[in-house]
Request: fold
Amino acid sequence: MLLLAFFILGLVVHVVFFISIFDIYFTSPLVHGMTPQHVPLPAPAKRLVLFVADGLKADTLFKTDDTKIDKAPFIRSIMEESGSWGVSHTRVPTESRPGHVALIAGFYEDVSAVAKGWKENPVEFDSVFNESRHTWCWGSPDILPMFAKGASGDHVYTHTYSAEMEDFASTDASKLDTWVFDEVKAFFSSAKANDTLLSQLREERNVFFLHLLGIDTNGHAHRPMSREYAENIEIVDAGVAEIVSVMEDFFENDKGTSYIFTSDHGMTNWGSHGAGHPSETLTPLVAWGAGIRTAERTTTQHFNDHYLQEWRLEYLRRIDVNQGVLPLGYLDNSGLFKAESMYANSIQIMEQFKVKMAQKKETTLSILFTPYQ
Ligand SMILES: [Zn+2]
Reply:
């Protein structure tokens, strides 16, 4: 009898623990209905160009290897002169969709997303694309549609190649990137003869997103130490340089464009990603243009890793980015602007707390509910 009771108790404990895992980890902590907060001062940029080199690990981009092959002379010149750089730390699972959600919506998805296989949006969320005036995107049909779908209204426009082309490009994956660069160039040259498009492009708060899948595909096929991976970086670097010059021409060097070059996740030496090894979680971040600080020479940098030495970048101020913390180090702006930005960010977080509290109050018996001081 005692044995049976013990058995039942043991069973109950296990069932409770098992259910609690789903309750804790598989229920999205995201809340909705917050009032969007804005900085009341004028924005330092009129538009943003976001380059995401899918699957590009920080190490490979930043390391100047012994062969002295300069994989990314343009990006390097930005780091040395006109921009700021650092490592952006992504999290597990190091997959494309959660990586892009973190970049564009500013949060890491919870494990509730596993039920959707990391392809579909498990929950609705707001994003910088949704808050933009217009967003034009070019790239993979696996990535772009989810942000267009998540946006209210029809101001997010996607230009994707076909799934067949994605397979076809497997012999030379860098074609996926040259496709994007060619499309963007064609877009701006056709815009000159299209009045509707022209007036949209001249508005403020526009985003241009270039999703570059070639490096990731080459990394899977040939591994990140391969010639193919390195050559693809060269192609992307040259493409970025070209797009910057097209944009600057189009907007007549109005100093209104901010540029960000980054990656959604890295890759292990054997060509995989998904887990939490530094080769997968450390992604490069290089920003320049309107509102961004230019390069700063320094002799004192404190990081508890050895990358600065390995990359021979001790002399260039490195600014890392973590979720939830405004990367003020990247901003070239007044103390007032930075303070207002921090304030707006804090109020936004406070708004989430309020929505969460209201939800809790609704589902809890009033005598059991004690709000925090
Ligand atoms: Zn990816």
Summary: The mean pLDDT is 89. The radius of gyration is 23 Å. DSSP finds 13 helices and seven strands in the chain. Residues 47-332 form a domain with the Alkaline Phosphatase, subunit A fold (CATH 3.40.720.10).
